[in-house]
Amino acid sequence: MQWIGSGYHPERGAPFLASFARSWVFAAFFIGIVCLTLWSDAAAETAHSLLSAGRVDQALQSLEQQIATDPAAESYNLLCRAHFELDAWDAGIPACEKAVSLAPNNGLYHLWLGRIYGEKADRSNFLKATGLAKKVRTEFERAVELAPDNAAVRTDLAEFYLEAPGIVGGGKEKARAQAALLAPLDPAIAHWVSARIAEKDRDFATAESEYRNAIDASHGGAFAWLNLAGFYRHTNRLDEMEQALHTMESRPLDRPGALVDGAGLLLRTGRDYPMAIRLLRRYIDSSTSVEEAPVFKAHYMLGELLEKQGDRPAAAEEYRAALFMAHTFSRAQDALKRVSH
Fold it and tell me: Which among 42, 77, 246, 284 is least buried, having the fewest CB atoms inside 10 angstroms?
């Protein structure tokens, strides 16, 4: 289950200030509170920037220090997302739950809680996964109630409805309703949801048409070309998949993570490793890294590709680069041991 999301910073206020402002004692106290608040906001922004840069070890250290001083909902949400990057679902769930408990009317916090429940469900036995899937639906539906105009929130709910069985609240008609509601918010994503529905129905002609409609709606953006390439992979049209990725490479990079996901398609299908390496190096060398495609995972994937090409020393360098940013990332740990023998 792969989710796409965005950050959110709720406004804060202090309505009680006026009644105390005339006291010089409070004046000193107030200055301290303002400084602490400014430090807290700056620290949260720094942690978010570190997550976007894939420097998850530094983000965790920053967040742990911040929570010890000012245990705010935003800090717990970012802590959850740091564990999410590391695939550490069990460690991240309590932090996401804490963020929701501290700020129950923040839709993005419910979204991230639903996402991490979903990842945990994907790796659980049937009975546990069923219970977690119901929690995913609850959190996503609550997120939509609180942030109805947020396209990312509606996209995740639509994907849940499409992928989940009816017993936990899934259904294609529900997904279709979300596509209609997404149309004025993000036409390209609305077409993507419609394409996924058609693909589920094995109506591949309509699906391809909708994927191309998404390309038109996004003005030829890279992300829509990536999704078309994914469709070609699902339908075993691998030459067309490669061509779509070549086109993606030259299109406006509306979502930088498309470079990493495109490389992943090539890696999983055993196609055009040089192109996959080129996409990953472009992403790693850019200044446009994003949270949904952590740079340490891009280093790890580059290591996999170099290892498959027989360049074990270069692969080891990439695995070390990944571990330098995220020292507990187990896949890189295992890979480095493998190539070092």
Answer: 42
